[in-house]
Amino acid sequence: MTPAVYRAEGTHLLADLSGVAPERLSDCIHLEALLRTAATAAGATILHSHFHAFGIGQGITGVVLLAESHMSIHTWPEQQFAAVDIFMCGDSRPEEALAVVRTAFEPLHCSVQTVRRAPALIGTVPAGDCP
């Protein structure tokens, strides 16, 4: 079997979800299952995941490592807020992963920044573009 080849091009979604019920943001097992379900819905390949709860009723930080890149979440139940980071390359569909998360959280407000990630064509980026 030939290993999959992934392009070094992708979409990076940064989502801020506000007005989320606190109980949806403080269950570590539920959040890990949610992000894994979202990754699968997006057609991504899950390699590993790790989630950490900071205590009963407190926030959670977690990451799902994907062959296509990653998904991460940081929650603040006391502020009814979650920051979700979805970066996927290849044929995966990060927008579908975000749709799964939004449906589960039912936020009152969602702000999404979309960043296209891709290598520069050598010779087209002026020197000094990066510090």
TrEMBL record:
GO terms for molecular function: adenosylmethionine decarboxylase activity. Its cofactor is pyruvate. Pfam families: AdoMet_dc (PF02675). The modification Pyruvic acid (Ser) is found at residue 69. Keywords: Autocatalytic cleavage, Decarboxylase, Lyase, Polyamine biosynthesis, Pyruvate, S-adenosyl-L-methionine, Schiff base, Spermidine biosynthesis, Zymogen. It catalyses: S-adenosyl-L-methionine + H(+) = S-adenosyl 3-(methylsulfanyl)propylamine + CO2. The active site is at 69 (schiff-base intermediate with substrate), 74 (proton acceptor), 89 (proton donor). SUPFAM superfamilies: S-adenosylmethionine decarboxylase. InterPro entries: AdoMetDC_C (IPR042286), AdoMetDC_fam_prok (IPR003826), AdoMetDC_N (IPR042284), S-AdoMet_deCO2ase_core (IPR016067), S-AdoMet_deCOase_pro-enz (IPR017716). Binds 1 pyruvoyl group covalently per subunit. Its EC number is 4.1.1.50. HAMAP family: AdoMetDC_1. This is S-adenosylmethionine decarboxylase proenzyme. It comes from Pseudoduganella chitinolytica. The lineage of its organism: Bacteria, Pseudomonadati, Pseudomonadota, Betaproteobacteria, Burkholderiales. The gene is speD.
